[in-house]
Amino acid sequence: MSAPEMLRDRLPWEDVDVPTLVLTAEDSPLPTPAEAAAVVDRLPRGELLVLPHGGHLLLGNVTRLRDVLREALTDVLTG
């Protein structure tokens, strides 16, 4: 079993009862978009954002990440 499979299959994602934003990129080797989507499917309040590029570190997406994180945090804080 690979590390992503262990994270996806062995952790109690259904018990995470807070808004959870999962980020990845189309060219990310870990987690791949499919692996990230499998986790989000198990999160009661999960949301997935797949960026078009950036690899594992989401490089080159500073402005987009800033905007997405600001929006997500504002949503959480304002209910």
UniProtKB/TrEMBL annotation:
Name of the protein in question: Esterase
Species of origin: Frankia canadensis
Gene3D superfamilies: alpha/beta hydrolase
Record lineage: Bacteria, Bacillati, Actinomycetota, Actinomycetes, Frankiales
SUPFAM superfamilies per UniProt: alpha/beta-Hydrolases (SSF53474)
